[in-house]
Amino acid sequence: MNSKRLRVELHSHTHASPDSRLSAETITRVNRERGIDVVAVTDHNTMDGAFEMAERLPFPVILGEEIKSTEGDIIGLFLSHEIPRDMSPAETVAAIREQNGLVLAPHPFDGLRRSALGRAAVDSIVDDIDILEVFNGRTLLRRDNDAADRYADEHGLIKSVGSDSHLAAEIGHCCQSMRPWDDPQDFLASLREAELHASLAPAWVHLGSSLHAYLTKFERRFRRLTGA
Q1: Domains of the chain (ranges plus CATH)?
Q2: Of 19, 35, 60, 74, which is the most exposed, with the fewest CB atoms less than 10 Å away?
C-alpha cells in the first residue's frame, strides 16, 4: 500500500451470502466509482466470498466473516479460515482470537434486526471487542446507531462504520479514511484515529436483499428436487 490515506469499507457482502448477488465485476466497478480503496468481505457464515474476492479484486481485501452466534452477529477480520456458526458469543470471540483476528460487533443495538447482539450480549464480551460499529448503513432507526456511538464512548471502544452492502446501491455509503497499516494491531491504531464517513442506504434495499434470500432458497430447493 502507498502512503496516501485509504478509504476502507469494513462490512460488505458478496454472492456468497444468501441475501446478496454481488459479483466481483460489480464490486470492482462500483467501488472504483465511489473511491473505495480497501474492502473487508464479511459474508454470512462463510469465507468463500472473501477468498474469491481476494483473488479477483484489483485492490486489497481484508478476509472476514460475519458469524451468527447464539446471541447475534459478530464479525471477525483478518481471518485465515472459516469459523462455524451457532457458538456462544464468548466461543465465537475465542475462535477469532485463535486466528489472531480482530473482533468487530456490527449493528449491535439495531432493534429491528433479529441478528443484532443487543446490550446484554455486548456487555458479556465488551472486554474482547476490538471495534464497535457505531453506524450501519442499513440500520433504519437513527437512535440505534446513536446508542452504539454512545456505548463506544462510554467503554473506550474503537469505532467503525459499515455500509453492510448487499446491493450495488449500498456500496460506499460508509467508509473510514485511514493511514496505511502494517498488521492487525497497527490497523487498530490507524482506525482509532480514522475519519468516519457514513450515510444511510435507501430503505428499499431491505426489500432487495429479502428477494435475493428468497430466490436463493428457491434455487437450492429446485436443485435438490431436480438433482441439477
Answers
A1: 6-226 (3.20.20.140)
A2: 35
